[in-house]
C-alpha cells in the first residue's frame, strides 16, 4: 500500500482524531492513492496517521457504511471494488428520487437561491476548465444539485438522497476523472441553471431526464470493460 504522497495532517494533533482519520482515508481512496480492491492494513494506516489501530478500525467501519470499504472474512478490509450491478442499483434509485425532488422543487422556484446557484455554476466552470481539483469538482456539483433539491423541502427525501450521494461517491470520482465528459457535464449545469432562472418547470425536469439518458449508455459499458480487465489479471 503506497503512503508516499500523503503526509500526516497537522490537524491530527488538535482536531477530532476520528473525523480526521476518516477524512484522510476517504481522500486517499477518492484521490486514487488507494485503488479498488487494495488491502487496507490497519498497522500501516495507523503509522500513516500517527494513531493507534482503534481509530483506524472505527474509521474503516464508517467508510464501509459509505460504500468505500469492504470487509472480507479472514482477509480484513479492502477498498471497495467498482461493480456494475451496484452502480446500476444506486444510480437507478438516485434517478427516480432526484426526478421526484425536481418535480417538488418546481412547485416552489422562489425557494431556489439563484444568486448562489449562479455563483456555484461559475465556480464549477472554472474548476472544470482547470481540471485539477477532483474533490473540489465533486463537492461543487453536489452543492449545485442539492441547492435545487432543497427547494422541495422534503426532509426525508433529502436525507435519503444525501445518503445515496455518499455511497455513490467513489463512482462519481471514478467517472469525474474522464476529461472527455467535461463538456457534457458543463452543458448540463448550464441547462439546469437556465431552467431555474426562467422558472421553466418542464425545462428543469427535461434537463434532468436528458442528463440521466446520456449517463448509463456511456458509463455502464466502461464499468463492464474494466470489470472484464480485472478478471483477466
Helix content: 55-70%
Oligomer: single chain
Query: In the CATH hierarchy, what is the superfamily of the largest domain?
Result: GntR ligand-binding domain-like
| Percent of sequence in beta strands | under 5%
- Averaging pLDDT over every residue, what do you get? 86
Distance between the termini: 18 Å
List the uncertain runs. Answer: 2-15
The helix tally amounts to 10
Order of helices and strands: HEHHEEHHHHHHH
Question: What would you report as the Rg, rounded to the nearest angstrom?
Answer: 19 Å
Major sheet: arrangement of strands: 1-3-2
CATH C-level label of the largest domain: Mainly Alpha
Describe the sheet with the most strands. Answer: 3 strands, antiparallel
Structural class: mainly alpha
Features:
233 residues, mainly alpha, Arc Repressor Mutant, subunit A, Four Helix Bundle (Hemerythrin (Met), subunit A), 2 domains, three-stranded antiparallel β-sheet, 68% helix
What's a quick, concise take on this entry?
The chain has 233 residues and is mostly helical. Helix content is 68%, strand content 4%.
Detailed description of the structure:
It is a single chain. By secondary structure, this protein is mostly helical. The protein has two domains: 70 residues, Arc Repressor Mutant, subunit A; 148 residues, Up-down Bundle (Four Helix Bundle (Hemerythrin (Met), subunit A)), CATH 1.20.120. The chain contains ten helices and three strands. It has a three-stranded antiparallel sheet. Strand 2 and strand 3 form a beta hairpin. The longest helix has 31 residues. The radius of gyration is 19 Å and the shape is globular. The N terminus is likely disordered.
